[in-house]
Amino acid sequence: MDEFAVLADINRETDQHQNNYQRYNNINFSLKEIQKITNFKVQKKHNLVQKYVPSAVDTIIYQS
């Protein structure tokens, strides 16, 4: 193997690592975005439940 072949090999490996890293970053970013959206939706539902559903304690007192 001459040095050019070795350099070409190293370049290929480096490109592969960079592609993997970029893919990892994209996935990570997507997951964080999904998490934000999910947390927001859960928080919204929680707020609606708090607003419109009487608390369990009130319900128990009311029923007894």
How are helices and strands ordered from N to C? HH
- Count the helices. How many? 2
Q: Considering DSSP H and I runs of 4 or more, what fraction of the residues is helical?
A: over 70%
**End-to-end C-alpha gap:** 87 Å
- Strand percentage lies at under 5%
What best-fitting shape do the alpha-carbon axes yield? rod-shaped
Low-confidence parts: none
Q: Over the alpha carbons, how many angstroms does the gyration radius reach?
A: 27 Å
Mean pLDDT: 84
Secondary structure category: mainly alpha
For the biggest sheet, the summary is: none
| Total E-strand runs | 0
Key terms for this structure?
mainly alpha; 2 helices
Summarize the structure.
The radius of gyration is 27 Å and the shape is rod-shaped. Helices cover 91% and strands 0% of the residues.
What does this structure look like?
The chain contains two helices and no strands. The protein is rod-shaped, with a radius of gyration of 27 Å. The protein starts with a helix and ends with a helix. By secondary structure, it is mainly alpha-helical. Helices cover 91% and strands 0% of the residues. The protein has helices at 3-52, 56-63.
List the helices and strands and how they pair.
Elements: H1 3-52, H2 56-63
